[in-house]
């Protein structure tokens, strides 16, 4: 079976890193930035050779799956109609330097991916690729036969979509680790001990198991009444 076409919205450091990994894994990759196609074409040619620069609407329309690597504050610019019925991978995080000092997007009650899912109500959102830094993503990709393969945690309310994204995570060189419904995605966000985690699957699971012992974990469990896996 031919591999799917992945559309990446965001041609910054994370977007171009994931584009390189996806191209290396054999995917067709469409990537869109905030500027014109002409403006980002050279950047994509140099930083993500093999990917095709395109507009966000075209990427959303033509891709089988779309990955969000935009500043979180721009989530309302995501083309909704073109993403109808599609799986959307949310790799976005709140950064005050970019999104402003007042985080009005998410808190302990609502994870940022739930906000994105509410905006993209006709799509299926899966949170993944947000807890590991872009430089680590580049350096840590390994085949399944290699020792020390690192894990990428993901959350979703849709099992089928989760399985599809798990395959992409595996293809890009990481062990997928499902950690429950989309609301659990808050434990992968900035501020959580898990944010920045660059661990093998067993160690990442152990860290998750002990998260309720942390101040952050206690606040999350109390606010969202979730059971951390």
From TrEMBL:
<protein>
    <submittedName>
        <fullName>NADP oxidoreductase</fullName>
    </submittedName>
</protein>
<dbReference type="Pfam" id="PF03807">
    <property type="entry name" value="F420_oxidored"/>
</dbReference>
<dbReference type="InterPro" id="IPR028939">
    <property type="entry name" value="P5C_Rdtase_cat_N"/>
</dbReference>
<dbReference type="InterPro" id="IPR051267">
    <property type="entry name" value="STEAP_metalloreductase"/>
</dbReference>
<keyword id="KW-0560">Oxidoreductase</keyword>
<feature type="domain" description="Pyrroline-5-carboxylate reductase catalytic N-terminal">
    <location>
        <begin position="5"/>
        <end position="94"/>
    </location>
</feature>
<dbReference type="GO" id="GO:0008823">
    <property type="term" value="F:cupric reductase (NADH) activity"/>
</dbReference>
<dbReference type="GO" id="GO:0052851">
    <property type="term" value="F:ferric-chelate reductase (NADPH) activity"/>
</dbReference>
<dbReference type="GO" id="GO:0005886">
    <property type="term" value="C:plasma membrane"/>
</dbReference>
<dbReference type="InterPro" id="IPR036291">
    <property type="entry name" value="NAD(P)-bd_dom_sf"/>
</dbReference>
<dbReference type="GO" id="GO:0015677">
    <property type="term" value="P:copper ion import"/>
</dbReference>
